[in-house]
Amino acid sequence: MKLVYKTALLFFLYVHASAQNADAILKKIRESKEDTNRVLAYIEYGQLLENQNLDSAGKYYLKAEALSQKLNYGIGKFKFRSNYTYILNLQGKFDQGLKLNKESFEIARELKHEVNIGKSLANIATSHVYMGNFTEAIKYYQRSADQFEKLGMKEFLPRLYISIGSAFEHANLFNKSLVYKQKALQLARPMKDSLTLADILTNLGGCYFNLKRYKEGLAVYTEGLAVAQKIKSDIFVVQAYGGLCRVNRGLKKLDVAREYGEKGLDLARKTGNVFLEMECLRALMFVAEDSNQPELSAKYTREALKIAEANEMTDHLVELYEDYATDLARENNYKGAYDYLMKYTIMNDSIQGLDIQKQLQELDTKYLTAQKEKQIVTLEKEKQTRNTLIYSLIAGLVVFILIAVLVYRNIAIRKRIAEQEVLQLQQEKQLVATNSILKGQEEERTRVARDLHDGLGGLLSGIKLTLNSVKGNVILPEESAMTFTRALTQLDGAISEMRRVAHSMMPETLVRFGLIEALNDFCEGISSSGQLKVTMQNFGFEERLDSSIEIVLYRVVQELLNNVLKYAEATEAQVQLTRVGSNVSLTVEDNGKGFDVNSLETSKGAGFRNVQARVDYLNGKLDIQSTPEEGTSVLVEIVV
Question: 3-state DSSP: the chain helix, strand, coil percent, rounded to 5?
Fold first, then answer.
């Protein structure tokens, strides 16, 4: 009988759900709608049941697949295949498992899910291991490892290395297998992933057993059992029990070996794991043989043979036919022994024939694959043509939309420009009207001032001279003399008031000597009244400005200072007039009570409106800064 032990079970995407979450998962299934959340809950509960009952786990996976198909939920379809193949492998249905794993790979590619692509490659490799295609298995495992290394996801590498090692182990390359499994254990220990660690330890133990390094195998199986029991993973507990059975048999501790083997067999049957059940039966078969219990050995062989035949486990059937023929010969059942020996011979020969068939099938598969690839290329070209047409239509639509937007924008801009031109014309019209009014006002002021000074002033002065000459030639009573004198005094006052009004309307100083002299006189006149102390400063006025500009600036100062006298309750004011090149700035400041500048918009007073109108007349800028109780500053800037 052969002593080689083939690793019991490989899987990649298995996720362990703890029993304490079972109620929560069932509640989620009951309360969720028929949506993707329910799909994921079905998968999660199926994973939980894998350690308890494979049939029940499979039912929940199938429910997840049915709902995923209904919802067209790609991730759900992928998860179903990745998990359900695990059950198929346990049941020995390796062809079906490979088919689903290849489908999961295509789904992952369609979803462009790089991680799931790596996982499906590893699962395809595992299916090839079960089917004895070790070369293909190693190729897929290496592709999966390359994928995860490219993604920088080293947490997946330990499982891949253990799987590659198991593939070499199935090909009886035990030393090469040991290298990969030890590398996997080295990477897994720092990760503190108990499930992965239990998987690696039980696999590494099988490698030590095949190399007949039983003590080292005993150590890793014992550690693996402790880890598996801690996380309550029945699968790895069974693998550890089976492994401890084999290594204790190798160490000639047959009673201990039998105890572990029976524990593993009982637990494997409870979980419905026929693959592990068969492995435990074979381990006990060898223990019974070494214990000189041929009947018991034959019993275990029959039970293992029944499982292998039911699940078409060809590799195991060859060995079991040979083993059972030996058992029957011991019982002197030579006819039965002959029959099973013939089955062994036929199957062994058929395996050789199967190799040829396999090659032919691979050639046929490659041909069909090439044909499908040609169809895919054709479909891709058609798809590309359709996409080009669609993109062209989209581009045309985008261009049309852009043109429409530009036309609309152009119309809107023209409309806005036209509105601005109308507004500008209205403003210019208003400005011309204002300028005409101001010019008319100044001309009228000048005329009235001249008429008052030259006409009425001359007449009053003549009357005064006449009266003075009468006073010297006529003797009046004392009382009449006093009245006459008082009339002369009133006449003097009238002449002075007339001159003051004429001067205010058009100061003679402004006309004769210019703006600076006129403002100095005006400021001194206000200061001499005692109501407000006004200081005047100027810079850069070596040459006079145009007379029309001087008049407007004088009226602005006049208006601003009159406002200070009326409303500011100030004690001091300052007028600054500066000229730098063609830029002229006028500043009038006071220390009065100030006001809220925003109130000017609703104010009914004409003072500031007159100032603004005169500044606009000069195309200048007016800036008013004032804060209650902190005074006021008015800045006028013009270009001459």
Answer: 80, 5, 15
